[in-house]
Amino acid sequence: MSTSILSYRTRGWLRMSVEKQDTLLKMAVLSLAAILSFSCRLFSVLRFESVIHEFDPYFNYRTTKFLAEEGFYSFHNWFDDRAWYPLGRIIGGTIYPGLMVTSASIYHILNWLHITIDVRNVCVFLAPFFSSLTTIVTYHLAKELKSPGAGLVAAVMIAIVPGYISRSVAGSYDNEGIAIFCMLLTYYMWIKAVKTGTLFWSTMAALAYFYMVSSWGGYVFLINIIPLHVLILMITGRFSHRVYVAYSTLYVIGTILSMQISFVGFQPVSTSEHMGAFGVFGLCQIHAFVDYVRSRLNKAQFEVLFRAVISTVAATGVLVLVMLTAMGKIAPWTGRFYSLLDPSYAKNNIPIIASVSEHQPTAWSSFYFDLQMLTFMFPVGLYFCFSNLTDENIFIILYGVLSIYFAGVMVRLMLVLAPVMCILSGIAVSSMLSTYMKQIDEVKTEKKKTKFEGNYFMRSEIATFFVCVMSVFLVMYTLHCTWVTSEAYSSPSIVLSARGHDGSRIIFDDFREAYYWLRHNTPQDAKVMSWWDYGYQITAMANRTILVDNNTWNNTHISRVGQAMASTEDKAYEIMQELDVDYVLVIFGGLTGYSSDDINKFLWMVRIGGSTEKGTHIKEHDYYTPAGEFRVDKEGSPTLLNCLMYKMCYYRFGQVYTEGGKPPGYDRVRNVEIGNKDFELDVLEEAYTTEHWIVRIYKVKDLPNRGA
Amino acid sequence: MHTSMFQGVDVNMLCLLAVCVAAAAATNTLVLVDTLATRETHSIFLKSLQERGHELTVKVADDPSLQLSRYGEYLYQNLVIFAPGVEEFGGALSVETIVEFIDGGGNVLVAGSREAADLIRELVTEVGVEMDEEGAAVIDHLHYDANDDGQHTLIAAPSSGLIDSEVMVGARDAIPLLYRGTGLITDADNPLVLPVLRAPSTAYCYSPTQAITDYPHATGQNMLLVAALQARNNARVVVSGSLEFFSDAFIMASVQTPQGASYERSGNGRVVEALSRWVFMEEGVLRVVSIDHHLQDQSEPPVAYTIKDDVEYKIKVERLVEGTWKPYVANDMQMEFVRIDPFVRLTMTPSSNGLFSVKFKVPDVYGVYQFKVEYNRVGFTRLYSSTQVSVRPFTHLQYERFIECAYPYYASAFSMMVGVFLFSLVFLHHKESPSKTKAD
């Protein structure tokens, strides 16, 4: 019986028309790509467990849980008194709620359908799910730009491109996970709107833009690139009613919608970052009006009028802009934006921005690591776009060129570059393959017909060779992507793993050990001081009040903590008393060789601590040796060897043997024997140290009972 | 619920419980002496303690059966060390256990002398007081009693040297105090030590039999005769450099100063009585009974206050008077509303039932605040109370819905809407009419 069904099916397949086969094939490839993009992001879940990764995702998880349990209005009005003690933080007004709203809706819908699923699992699997959607949108976008074939190649490429996987593996529950989908969706809608010039697609683009605004601060990129596209179209003389309708609708509706996000508020009409879009909107109106006037006047009259109007308008415009900026009505550009334009800006001016590793300039090698063959296919794609210049191709060229610049400035923006790399490479690969495949086919058919050869010698062989080489490249790309995903981007960073001597996997679960210790052994209202990196995790996992966290909104407060860490015990005690600190938590890697510990981050604490008024006594050069080195061994500066951070990290460490053949107190990260071994803590007492000493918790002592 | 559980328990059990409660109510005081003769020489002091309800246990300081605690609970609330000569405590007693006893809330009265042993000196340094060198005595050639043997070590300290606190030393009068012993110096870094009795400005501390070759350690007003310490846990310690200060002989003695003034009785009796009441927590003890804070028109505290709320804060304080808690009334009690720095600091209005209250408006700054009451007065227990509350910003519904100055904008928005509507009507009809004329 089964054979008969099979044969029936086979016959059915054969009987399908060519269009149907085409559709089926496309559907199959696309759905396979979507499934692939979901499944290759599951390494970390399979290898460790279904946990939230890193730092920021813990905050997002906590807020999502709150939203799912308490409802939207209490989320919107949520004042969090557990973070930023004693300042507190208005969570509802200082986040992009798109991510939380998305997962809370998914959670509610699934539960309404009686698919009972935990909020945590929704959060863990949201990013992979959205990358599947991204795959589909990429197909449509590339299809609009070039052809369905290009769409399919781009879709498959984006499914596994490491630059995107790095931010969207299961458990990496962050804004970027859905923002890339929103961004590509907006682009798709925009391209559609530009192509059709209908209100429908423009409005859809505005809605997609709204979703993007609600989910990621990177929407600023979007609201600058679309006006830029319009501007280029105007300059190249491609401005048309379609573009006019598309942009005017998008700008008006999109701006009004984006102002509904309370974190964005009045920024779209008050900050310089959004002024470009506004200016282009004005230009659009003028351009349309000029076109109208031109159609009514003769050429000579028009020339005179045009010149007079343009010069007055430009002069007043510039004047008004300068005046508004001088009066402070238009906020000056924020530090993050400056650092986009001038990579050294942050380093020189704002230590808190420079201290984040993902704000560092990108190394050359990471382009290849994250994009592999796309790096080389990108210019080819650009070539094909230039060779057939249309409104929408200009857009993708712009997007590609701009994002490659930004990705070079900040590692984090590799994420924005990855999709356009995939699309352009998709176009390149598809165009080249279709050119050469045709030649293989042509030769087969032509051979019978005529000996009339083309311009090329051995066309068929060269074509075959080329197709083979291309296939090898694509296979290599696949292997590279899988390898990178598996090795580099699938570790949750909350659970660490290392290889033992015999090659077995050793798991360090110290973070959770410490957080659960805090949760179960400290008073409910205990205040924990730590460097801001661990803030979100402590609030989410230990449920304790913290002083500073990863939302680095208050530089002064972070600086105060930095000062406490960089001061001597007495000075630090004053600060800790002032801030009601009960426990202090430090991350220490000297025993295990975990290199991103607090001693390695310590210079940032010093810099940030010294960057405010109260911390002027903390000077970076005091923490260096006379030779200008940062060392924790005997040569190290006495200021460093006696500061609170050093003491908390190395308390009792001087008696510990870490490596065979080395003296006790041998730090395995810095690879030195520590300089100050025998000291006691006066104002702190050790409360807990985890199994591998990665997390150490100290309790702040009360004032002495009998006076000094 | 508990009473229902105990229903049916026999009467013996209840009696036992009653006995236990009674025993707990009495104050157990351990008195350590060098020789049991001290019981006789200091009988007035000890008797007054007994009369005030102290269960006295008098023991020799090197008694091998001494212990302060059993099974983790203290057997005594108070400790009197009238044993300046003891070289080594007996039993489980040591300087460490006594220090622990203080940190655990116990009160200690220590008296030294010229020949006080190292042990006592070590003990008093733990509470921020230093006794002068062995053999040194307080000497004053202007303030001595007529009964002095010529070395001028029997000091008639003027009562102006007493600390200005009625709670600690009783009502002020002009009668001098008799004192013979060593001088005390306090640790300048210790903010908790109180100078109960300062030496006269002409006094100094040196061995009376030796010629003075170097500058004395303790001189004049910097030297204390009696010092006190109220620890942060409110345990109280009094250190005196003179054991005789508490003796019957000094209490009953008459005083005659070289300046010619004479008094029938020394001031010692009164001061010793007051000081012992203070050190054993019979005087100057305050406690916070209850704290209450809420919005002015409500009675229950909210989960979080909102900025600019009108808040009422109440704190009930009681004072121990003759063994019973009575409402405390004072007009200098302040409340602070603190977020790192105090945003509000107000004096609370007292009432006759011990309830202090204050009404104020929460500042226009959100964050985590504390209601703080810190009441530190010399001689009284430290009152410290802090209650943490959150102050949140307005929710989206708490803002004004319509702002007056925005009326022109509302008007323009609505007129625009109407205008567009009318325009579209006109536009549509206008387009139709020419087509009609054409058709005609």
From TrEMBL, chain A:
Residues 25-424 form the Oligosaccharyl transferase STT3 N-terminal domain. It catalyses: a di-trans,poly-cis-dolichyl diphosphooligosaccharide + L-asparaginyl-[protein] = N(4)-(oligosaccharide-(1->4)-N-acetyl-beta-D-glucosaminyl-(1->4)-N-acetyl-beta-D-glucosaminyl)-L-asparaginyl-[protein] + a di-trans,poly-cis-dolichyl diphosphate + H(+). It is a multi-pass membrane protein. Its EC number is 2.4.99.18. It holds the Pfam family STT3. It is found in: Endoplasmic reticulum membrane. It is an enzyme of class 2 (transferase). Its cofactor is Mg(2+); Mn(2+). Residues 527-584 form the STT3/PglB/AglB core domain. The keyword Endoplasmic reticulum applies. InterPro entries: Oligo_trans_STT3, STT3-PglB_core, STT3_N. The keyword Zinc does not apply. Component of the oligosaccharyltransferase (OST) complex. There are 2 OST complexes, OST-A and OST-B, which contain STT3A or STT3B as catalytic subunit, respectively. OST-A and OST-B contain common core subunits RPN1, RPN2, OST48, OST4, DAD1 and TMEM258, and OST-A contains DC2/OSTC and KRTCAP2/KCP2 specific accessory subunits. OST-A complex assembly occurs through the formation of 3 subcomplexes. Subcomplex 1 contains RPN1 and TMEM258, subcomplex 2 contains the OST-A-specific subunits STT3A, DC2/OSTC, and KCP2 as well as the core subunit OST4, and subcomplex 3 contains RPN2, DAD1, and OST48. Belongs to the STT3 family. This is Dolichyl-diphosphooligosaccharide--protein glycosyltransferase subunit STT3A. The lineage of its organism: Eukaryota, Metazoa, Ecdysozoa, Arthropoda, Crustacea.
